[in-house]
Every structure is written in C-alpha cells, then in structure tokens.
Specification:
The chain is α/β, with parallel strands linked by helices and 325 residues long. Helices cover 29% and strands 26% of the residues. The protein folds into two domains: 155 residues, Medium-chain alcohol dehydrogenases, catalytic domain (Quinone Oxidoreductase, Chain A, domain 1), CATH 3.90.180; 129 residues, Rossmann fold (3-Layer(aba) Sandwich), CATH 3.40.50.720. Strands 3, 4, 5, 6, 7, 14 and 15 form a seven-stranded mixed beta sheet that branches. Strands 10-9-8-11-12-13 form a six-stranded parallel beta sheet, sandwiched between helices. Strands 1-2 form a two-stranded antiparallel ribbon.
Length: 325
C-alpha cells in the first residue's frame, strides 16, 4: 500500500514522505479499512514533534487519526457481514504506528463506525476528534435543558463547528466567538444565533446582553487567553470545558469561585470508554438527522501529505482532507 509516513527519530525526524509499505492484516477484534479520505487535525502535525500526544515508539509512523472508507477485511471475532460497510474512523493512530494517511489501515472494530446512508465520506472523515471532543465538552455531565445558553469559543473551527451543530440539535441556544467576517458566516450557518468578533467587539458586553443570567456552558479553545472572559459571562453553577490552548500557568479569576463554576479539561484520546460510546451514538443520530454538516474543504492528494499538515499548522479555515488513491 501507499502511505504518508515519517521517522520519529534521526536527522529527518518528523519529515513526511510517501512510501510503499506492507498491507496491514487485521488482528482479533479488528477490521481493515480501505481509506478513501483522511482528515487532518492539529494533533496530527503536533504529534510529529518529539513528545507529541500521539507519538509512539516506532521506527516509522503513518499519521492522522480520522478518516473514512470501506471495510475490506475483518479479523477473528468480527462479524464478516461488516465487509463492504462504509465507516468513519477515530483515534486510528492513538498508541499505534499506523493512522489513516494510507490506502489501508487496521484498527479495533469499534473505532470504525458505520456511516448512515447518504452521508458523504468527506463528512465522515471530518468527524472523529472534532465531533467527539465537542460532544464531551457539551454533555460530559449530562444534557443541558432545552433553551440553555452556551458559548462556543472559536465557532468556525472544526470542534467549534461541531459543538454549535450538536448543541442546536439538542435545543440549546448558542453564541460563538470568531476572529473574522468569514468565520462569522461559518458560525452563523452552523446555527449560532449570536456571533461576536473578539478582535473588534466588546465580547463580554455583547454576550451579557444576549444572556443576562450568563451562559451555562463554555466550550473553550484557549483557556489561558479566555478564562477571564469566561468567568465574566458564566452563569451560576456553570462549567467551562476546555479542549485546547497553550500550556503554562493559568490564573483562576475569583469570579469563578463566587459562581461555583466547574472547570473541565477534555482530551478525546483518554475519554472514558462510556463517553466515547455516548459520543458515537449521538454523532450517528445527528448524521441520520442531517444535523451535522461539512466545513469548507481544502483537498490534497496523498502525495502532498506534508502540504496538508502545513495547511493545518498555518490555520487553514475549514477542513483539510487528504484524498487517498
């Protein structure tokens, strides 16, 4: 098979190239998927750095956690009727050397989720990390009541986009912050009823005007940068669920203590198994309802896997996809 890959050590550590590698064979409880589209996330290019979250002890690594394709082989204990099933993939390269930037990938069968009819492989390849992270941030402690107000920071990003759509599907009211008019249009199209440009507007004032009692939940992309704002707009007993951001110390505003706020940190790889199952069920139901949509795409052939990673690192607006031949 052809695969994008890199060596994690040596003088060319982290440098992506396309090679011909042996076809994988699924082990017990695994399926093999012929990948059609591989989704690229920030964690994929970050994993190529020493100590990256998804780095593994291997001589050669095929990156990318998310993707979509068709099951063409099953291992022992897996229902052979799954052969031919269209699936979306998640956590494919977590603690494994071979991800989805390849023509074939073998992985545990529960990480290959059946796509409902009519759902495109492009959308399937865009789910994984973003949609599962969004679900955990929104519903880690159960469902919010319909009409509850939620702030999604970075509403045009992949996680933010999924969070808006999943929240709206549950009857929640959503405000999103963005940094440009283009991103504002994407957040509004996803269902945010208030969109605030944090570069040009009084974010706290706009949100407090929209939600005088505060927001019940914040889906946070940059805890260090935004925690003061989050404390300003959070309702009593509200929660901030953070899934990304720069490292380093964070000062906790006293206002969070006064409001009995909860601060949650979310990493999709190490979510409890029950949380992963709940996310998969909700995402599948949302796909059947037509509630999840595809961001604008930036497409690259497998031969340009390095350029695809560079585009994500540079902050491409929309979803970066690899077309697998």
């Amino acid at each position: 098979m052809l695969a994008g890959c890199y060596s994690p050590t040596g003088p060319r550590a982290g440098v992506l190239e396309v090679r011909e590698l042996p076809d994988p064979t699924p082990g017990p409880g695994e399926v093999r998927v012929r990948v059609a589209v591989s989704g690229v996330n920030p964690t994929d290019w970050k994993a190529r750095r020493p100590g990256g979250l998804a780095s593994v002890d291997a001589k050669l690594v095929v990156p990318n956690q998310d993707g979509a394709g068709t099951i063409d082989m099953v291992g022992g204990g897996v229902d052979p009727r799954r052969i031919g099933q269209r699936v979306w993939l998640y956590n494919a390269q977590w603690r494994r050397a071979h991800g989805t930037a390849a023509q074939l990938v073998a992985l545990p069968e529960e990480q290959a989720v059946a796509l409902p009819g009519g759902v495109s492989l492009d959308l399937g390849a865009s789910l994984g990390i973003p949609a599962m992270t969004a679900h955990r941030c929104l519903f880690s402690d159960g469902a919010l009541p319909p009409g509850a107000r939620v702030l999604v920071a970075g509403g045009a990003g992949a996680v933010g986009h999924a969070a808006i759509e999943l929240a709206v599907r549950r009857g929640l009211r959503v405000c999103a912050t963005v940094s440009s008019a283009q991103k504002a249009r994407l957040a509004a199209r996803a269902g945010a009823e208030l969109v605030v440009d944090y570069r040009t507007e009084d974010v706290g004032g706009r949100i407090r005007e929209w939600a005088p009692e505060g927001v019940a939940r914040v889906v946070e992309v940059d805890l260090a940068a935004n925690l003061e704002l989050d404390a300003q707009v959070l309702a009593q007993d509200g929660a901030v669920s953070a899934y990304a951001g720069a490292g380093g110390a964070v000062d906790l505003p006293r206002r969070l203590l006064m409001s009995n706020a909860r601060l949650e940190l979310v990493l999709v790889y190490t979510m409890p198994e029950a949380a992963k199952r709940a996310a998969v069920e909700e995402i599948t139901a949302a796909l059947r309802d037509g509630a999840l949509t595809l961001l604008p795409t930036h497409r690259f052939p497998l031969a340009d896997v390095a350029a695809a990673h560079d585009a994500v690192e540079a902050g491409a607006v929309g979803k970066v996809l690899l077309d697998i031949p």
